[in-house]
Amino acid sequence: xxxxxxxxxxxxxxxxxxxxxxxxxxxxxxxxTFTSHTPGEHQICLHSNSxxxxxxxxxxxxxxxxxxxxTNNYPxxxxxxxxxxxxxxxRQLLDQVEQxxxxxxxxxxxxxxxxxxxxxxxxxxxxxxxxxxxxxxxxGIWQMRHLKSFFEAxxxx
Amino acid sequence: xxPRGSRGPLPVLLLLWALAACEARASEITFELPDNAxxxxxxxxxxxxxxxxxxxxxxxxxxxxxxxxxxxxxxVLYKEMKKQYxxxxxxxxxxxxxxxCFSNEFxxxxxxxxxxxxxxxxxxxxxxxxxxxxxxxQMESACVSIHEALKxxxxxxxxxxxxxxxxxxxxxxxxxxxxYWSIGEAIILLVVSVGQVFLLxxxxxxxxxxxxxxxx
Lengths: 157, 216
Fold this sequence. Notes:
By secondary structure, chain A is an alpha+beta fold. Chain A has helices spanning about 75-80, 85-155, and strands at about 5-10, 20-25, 40-45, 45-50, 60-65. Chain B folds into two domains: about 25-120, Jelly Rolls; about 135-200. Chain B has one helix spanning about 140-215, and strands at about 5, 15-20, 25-35, 40-45, 50-60, 65-70, 75-85, 85-90, 95-105, 110-120. At the A-B interface, strand 3, strand 4, strand 5, helix 1 and helix 2 of A face strand 1, strand 2, strand 3 and helix 1 of B. Chain B: Belongs to the EMP24/GP25L family.
């Protein structure tokens, strides 16, 4: 539910690229559903162009977000599929277990990303340390040679 | 409300949100709290309802935030400064709009991401039209206890996911700082080595001219 003139934008950013999944303009009320296709952080932005917003209802926006198995309306499902009470309870448990599975998949994906990041960081640290040591040695050599030629020119050595 | 980390950064005018007033609701929201900002949420609660507010800071600075919960009369029910994580349960003493605010006003330049879970009342029954006069069968009570156990599994998973996000945020912070430090150090190294050589050379050049002057 949104007050007059509110735009709803849904950019999604797992990683770097930001892709707008959904962008809608609503009047005094709005409702939308979507299914996420990639794991990661999704952002929901509410934006209002209306100047009347601050005067309307003290600037409050009623908002309701439901995710995952809470989107299911069990009495409706029971009526549609004609389930007995026990079957409905079993259905609810199945939905919950599915939710748990999805979450575990997400954690497995996260762990994989983390492992890749760690390995690439490890590589970069190794190359950087080697490069820094080489720069240090080369600088030392340059310093000595430069000074030696300088002193020889000044006939001090 | 189950966990995909959906978050709502509010770019503009809206500072106040109201969650839809209803019995037996649970809302989880992860939102962004800019520096020196305060964000308030409102909920209409009926008298005698048991409510739980739980919050955790996910990214930003020292991972702490101020939290404050007020009843419709303005009496402060809960107030904590600079907390990383906390959970507070209360029973609504009267009808009205309860308000809770998160404040980042003590911070000058760090944005914070805060997760909160506000639970109003118990879960809605599966069969709202029924009037439970008969006792549950064994199968049904087994289902109920499995349901409760799974709910706590999902809750633990949410906390684990938040911990992982927090750890990742700290690691990325550290990574940026180490990268800048390494580049800075390399530049300082080069500047110092070149500077040393030229400074040394300048000592010997000056001395020679001074000696000549003194001589004549």
